[in-house]
Structures are given as C-alpha cells and as structure tokens.
TrEMBL record:
GO cellular component: cytosol
UniProt xrefs under Pfam families: Glyco_hydro_1 (PF00232)
Keywords in alphabetical order: Carbohydrate metabolism, Cellulose degradation, Glycosidase, Hydrolase, Polysaccharide degradation
EC number of this enzyme: 3.2.1.21
Listed GO MF terms: beta-glucosidase activity
Residue positions of the active site: E169, E352
Protein name: Beta-glucosidase
Residues that, per the record, bind substrate: Q23, H124, N168, Y292, W399, E406, W407
Top-level enzyme category: hydrolase
SUPFAM superfamilies xref list: (Trans)glycosidases (SSF51445)
Record field: catalytic activity: Hydrolysis of terminal, non-reducing beta-D-glucosyl residues with release of beta-D-glucose
Organism: Micromonospora globispora
InterPro entries in the record: GH, GH_1_N_CS, Glyco_hydro_1, Glyco_hydro_1_beta-glucosidase
Length: 443
C-alpha cells in the first residue's frame, strides 16, 4: 500500500459516497410503495446467486438517521442516493404517494442538518412493475411517465437537492437488463434492445425540462464508461473495438452532447422521431462518470452473434467480482472524454468508483480492507493526473457507503466503506472509511 501523501485537489472539490434505493432501503411495502421490476426479478427462482432479495437490504428506510451520522463522521460534502420511483408513484403514473415523498423529505433534511449536500438520482433501475407490464422502456410512453415523475419529485425536493442525476448507467440497464437478461427485467434482446436506449435518453431530456421548471440546482446524468483495450492488432480487431466503444461509451454520450447517435450494431433509427435528438441534447451542467475497469476487445469468431469478443485483461490485480484493477484506465477515460467532446463537454464528477472484496470482521469485530484503500488511492491519483492535464473534474463519489444488496449477486459482494452484518444490521466502519476520512477528506 502506498504511503505517499495524497495530492491536493482543487478548492471546492466535491467529496462524496453513493448508494441506490433498492440496494439499501428495504421496506418494500412501507407507506404504499408499489412493486418494482427488481422486486419481481429477485423473487423469481434462479435469478439471484444466493436466492436473496432486497426486501430488507440494509433497512436504510428505518435506519437513515444512523447512516447520515456515518456520513457526517466521514466528513463527505455530498451524498448521492437514489429515489425509488415506485415509492413516489406506486404504479408509475398519477399523483404522488405522499408517504413515499415524506421519506425522502426526511432524508434530505437530515442530510442538510449535518452539512451534507443531497445529490438525488431519479432512476437507478427500479422501474415500477406496472410500467414494465405496459412495455417498460421498450414503450415510448415510459419516457413521458419519467418526466412526470421527475416533476413530482422536484416539486417536493427541488428547493433542497443540490444536484440532480436523471438516470444511472443507462447502458448497463439496457445491456444487462434487456440485452443479456441477467438483470431485471430479464429480457434477452441483444441488439434489439436499442429502443430501451433511446427511450431512456428521451426520458432524460424530458426530465431535464421538468427539473428546470421546478429547481435551480444543476442537472447531470451518470453514465457507465469502459475504455476499450484492444487485444489484437488487425483491422478486424480495430473494427471490433470501434463497435464496442460505440455501444458502451458513445451511444449514451454522443446524443447527449449534440452529436446524434453514432453508427453501431443494432442502432435502429426507426424509433427516433423528429425532434427527439433536440430533446435528448438539452444542456446538462455535469456529466457523471461511473468507472470500474476497461474492457479487453478483439475480433469475434465468424459465427458469433456479436461483432466483438470480450477478453479478460491479464496482468492486473482483481477484485472479488474478478474485475481488473486499472487506475490508469480512469485517467485515460477522462482524457478521452475531453479530447472527443471538447467544448461540448460539461464539468465531470466521478459519480461511482469502487470495488468489491471479501471483507470479514476479525476477532475484535474490526474490518481491515487494505485492497480497497489501494484501489481508491490509485483511482484518486488517476483523477488528479487528469486534472493536471486539463480535464475539468469537480467531484469524486466512492461506491459505496454501505455493503449492500448487489443486484443479481445478492449479498455475496461487498463494496462498502462500512461493513453491514445483514443478520443484525450492525454497521462497522472499515479501515477504508477511516482512510478516506483522514487521508483524503480531512488530511
């Protein structure tokens, strides 16, 4: 583990941590909350590795004050959380559910009372099941419903939320939820999932307008990015790399920044109506960047249904997810965004950066996680290097505050700065929590 001093970051740099509603809240029927696609998916046999659900998760719904106290002790300036759409609108349309909004009202006030900026994500994959039954993101109408939901939330919280994030990782929701079927709602459409991309982006643009009408706070979207590392040097390998880059990185960035859709596999313009691209390109104030690792790519075999083959990157340390730890990939990504989009690129905040390890309390109940400290140290230095090279990065959020319910992996993967005993809900700050507090936030 490095002992070198952490370089200083610009004044006003936003230090934070992130979570999401279904992964931590629990209380899935409290105050009239309706079912989401993840409730349905998690209760479907064989979908979740350990057979668990998010019914209780970290019980944050009842323990939010305890968790905000952890944020205050950590010293972060911002907390990125998500709002559960079915808690606000149980069926995804109609009037707001007052009890659901009351919870987020209490959470926001608790954060502000401890000097922590609320950063609210409107959609972190928990679509109301009733909307899925009507076609979900394959249905253009869902984009309009999303804007109405954004209006309801902003009408209640718009005076206090300090940064809005419309969508979290629309690429992941499209690819894993609708392309490969390993996330909710479980569709296996491969490249026929393009309408999900377009309707999410259309919903984003419509939500930007709704938020602007209710709030003066800045607006962002949080995209997942993965730089391509070619594992071959042929023209076919380069073509495969371009195809993957278009799908993972540019599909959800080019249209946001006024370039329209790139050419790519399955990108069907038939679902794009006149005026849609103008709506999608509504100006945003911040681009959220979620980064975990690069992707190794080479040309696919001739009989493959995909135009590329994903190849494991060798020679790097690996997380419990078996993801390679490549801090320089974050620097490369930030430089690529600047060089690719130029003046169209708004300021960047790294809205997720983190790692899963098999963290186990010792005999005294303490949790030492040196691998996570090394991971965060390397990635923060990569951010600082990008800033030194002229990239406008204004914030960094660790994923995650708490160990949580990790989607299809259930409770088998731990990302938190704080260990959670799921049987007792006891929170234990790990050594990485103290490191982030004492070495980075309060050096």
């Amino acid at each position: 583990m490095t002992t070198a001093p952490m370089p200083e970051f610009p004044a006003g740099f936003r230090w934070g941590v992130s979570t999401s509603a279904y992964q931590i809240e629990g209380a899935v029927t409290a105050d009239g909350r309706g079912p989401s696609i993840w409730d349905t998916f998690a209760h479907s046999p064989g979908r979740i590795v350990d057979g668990s659900t998010g019914d209780e998760a970290c019980d944050h719904y009842h323990r939010y004050a305890e968790d905000v106290a952890l944020l205050a002790e950590l010293g972060v300036s911002a907390y990125r959380f998500s709002i559960a759409w079915p808690r606000v609108q149980p069926t995804g349309e109609g009037a707001a559910n007052p009890g659901g909004l009351d919870f987020y009202d209490r959470l926001v006030d608790e954060l502000l009372g401890h000097g922590v900026d609320p950063v609210a994500t409107l959609f972190h994959w928990d679509l109301p099941q009733a909307l899925e039954d009507a076609g979900g993101w394959l249905n253009r109408d869902t984009a309009a419903r999303f804007a109405e939901y954004a209006d309801l939330v902003a009408a209640r919280l718009g005076d206090r939320v300090k940064l809005w994030i419309t969508l979290n990782e629309p690429f992941i929701h499209m690819s894993l939820g609708h392309g490969m079927g390993v996330h909710a709602p479980g569709w296996m459409l491969l490249f026929d999932a393009f309408p999900v991309a377009h309707h999410q982006l259309l919903g984003h643009g419509l939500a930007v307008s709704a938020l602007r009408a209710r709030s003066t706070s800045p607006i962002a979207i949080a995209n997942n990015y993965s730089p391509v590392r070619l594992q071959g040097d042929t023209d076919a390998d380069r073509a495969a790399g371009n195809a993957y880059d278009a799908l993972h990185n540019r599909l959800f960035t080019d249209p946001l920044l006024g370039r329209g859709y790139p050419e790519g596999p399955g990108f069907d313009p038939a679902v794009v109506r006149d005026g849609d691209l103008d709506v999608i390109a509504a100006p945003i104030d911040v681009l959220g960047v979620n980064y975990y690792n690069p992707t190794g790519i080479r040309a696919a075999e001739e009989d493959s249904p995909l135009p590329f083959e994903i190849v494991p990157l060798e020679g790097y340390p690996r997380t419990a997810f078996d993801w390679p730890v490549v801090p320089d990939g974050l620097r490369d990504l930030l430089l690529w965004l600047r060089d690719t989009y130029g003046e169209a690129l708004p300021p960047i905040q790294v809205t997720e950066s983190g790692c899963a390890y098999d963290d186990v309390p010792d005999a005294d109940g303490q949790v030492d996680d040196p691998d996570r400290i090394a991971y965060l140290d390397g990635h923060l230095r990569a951010v600082r290097a990008a800033i030194d090279e002229g990239v406008d990065v204004t914030g960094y959020f660790v994923w995650s505050l708490l160990d949580n319910w990790e989607w299809a992996e259930g409770f088998t993967k731990r990302f938190g700065l704080v260990h959670v005993d799921y049987a007792t809900q006891r929170r234990t700050p790990k050594s990485s929590y103290g490191w982030y507090r004492d070495r980075v936030i309060k050096p």
